[in-house]
Amino acid sequence: MSEIVRFLLAGGFIGMMLALTQWLTRRYALHTFYWRKLLHVSAIGVCGWIVDQSEQMDLLAGIFGCAALGLALVVHKKWLGVSSGRSWGIALFPLAFMLLLVLPFGKREIVTAIYILTFSDAFAGLIGNRWGRPWTPWKEQKSVLGSVVFALTAFGILWWRHGEFLEMGVLCSIAIALAGLEMFSWRGSDNLWIPLGAALFISTASSLKLSALELFSLMGVYVVFVYVIRSRKWLDPSGIAAAGMLALWIVLLFPMVYLAMPIIFLVLGSLSSKLTDGAEKDREEEGRTAVQVLANGVWIFGAGFWAALVDTETGQHLFILVFSIALSDTLSSEWGRYGGGMTLDMIRWKRVEPGLSGGVSLFGTLIGLLAAGVLPLLSIFLFQVSMIQAIGITFAAFIGMMIDSLLGSLVQSKFKGEDGRWQDGYHEEKPVLGYPWIDNHTVNFLSIGLTLLGFLLFAHGA
């Protein structure tokens, strides 16, 4: 069968399934969720078959890119009843497939990633929606049962396609790590992260020698660590789950010694947060949430992609930089509030309350500078980073902290409290600065991402 005939057959089948699920949605609207999953399995499954059979990867990447643009328009215009305009997932999966094809992944890894998205995500949604109990800390809630189903089906696919090459402990770890990606995604973004994460984990797993015994030993150490975290209320239950997944993602992408970075950040950041009282601390009395953990830590995937596919040393530096920025920003804020003194809005240059996002003080800035150098200094001994490289990472982390303050002043939402003072957050009945949908977690995410981008541009320009 020629490539053109195969593409036409696949396109015709997907078009037929789109029309069928549209009709089913109008005819039986109460079961729209199931029609969406039917479309998910049929459309993504046939894409996996096409990739497995095709030899023209560049052409196929272009087709997926065009499909992503077209489906994005469909979702934006709410033309697809089965989607109802609530999720961008139907446009994200062809984008993910295009990226998989243009990045230096092998076909075997790509097809496995597509099949995991096809079946694991669908079964997790179906069973979790029917019998699971939602718990994740955002509107699109996931269930523990759904995550277990995802991990089990992902393990089956991994064992089927890679069991003869990879250790059982590695296969289990990848399956659990991908279930974590699905658990902490929202608005259909798992259609992007699951295939990209699966291909990345499989490609780095060939150098990972993790037995099942070592995996369970790590889990045992984590259970003990969880007891300490909860007793001190450093993280709430969702934060503990996110931190565990973050640790597993790091183990799959980097040598295990890299776990020292997030552990030091967690300990120093959590101890510093106990210095102060006030509204912000009251909202975190049960510990930091999954949103806070991931807003700072999810950029390790950017470092992992760079280390695996482009340059290992630069990826290592990006990893150190992620947690250096987070540590600098956290300690600057907490110690700046504790130290008091005059705090000025970074843009308006007016006096504000200590701890208000966008506010800077001399003491807090000095603490931020010192904190920016903690992890780079440690990396000299752990990773053989040179002194010049450590100084560069420190400077970049400090710049990242200042970008965080800049964004906090320019775009983060604030409202006037009953005492007439500006406070972080957003209340509809109060005057507001910034954008209502941008909170401190969004600012943390953006500031780290922008700093990593700037670091890469400077590194390659130099």
Can you characterise this structure?
A 3-stranded antiparallel sheet has the order 4-3-5, with no helix packed on it. It folds into 2 domains: 3-205, no CATH class; 269-461, no CATH class. With 462 residues, the protein is mostly helical. The longest helix is centred in the last third of the chain and has 28 residues, at 312-339. It contains 19 helices and 5 strands. Helix 5 (107-131) packs across helix 8 (190-205), helix 15 runs antiparallel to helix 16 (362-372) and helix 17 (374-382) runs antiparallel to helix 18. The protein has helices at residues 3-27, 32-53, 57-77, 89-102, 107-131, 144-162, 168-183, 190-205, 212-231, 237-253, 260-273, 279-282, 290-297, 300-309, 312-339, 362-372, 374-382, 387-410, 440-461; strands spanning 343-345, 359-361, 414-416, 422-424, 432-433. Mean pLDDT is 85; it is low at 278-283.
In short:
The protein is mainly alpha-helical. It has helices at residues 3-27, 32-53, 57-77, 89-102, 107-131, 144-162, 168-183, 190-205, 212-231, 237-253, 260-273, 279-282, 290-297, 300-309, 312-339, 362-372, 374-382, 387-410, 440-461, and strands spanning 343-345, 359-361, 414-416, 422-424, 432-433.
What is the fold's blueprint, element by element?
Elements: H1 3-27, H2 32-53, H3 57-77, H4 89-102, H5 107-131, H6 144-162, H7 168-183, H8 190-205, H9 212-231, H10 237-253, H11 260-273, H12 279-282, H13 290-297, H14 300-309, H15 312-339, E1 343-345, E2 359-361, H16 362-372, H17 374-382, H18 387-410, E3 414-416, E4 422-424, E5 432-433, H19 440-461
Antiparallel strand pairs: 1-2, 3-4, 3-5
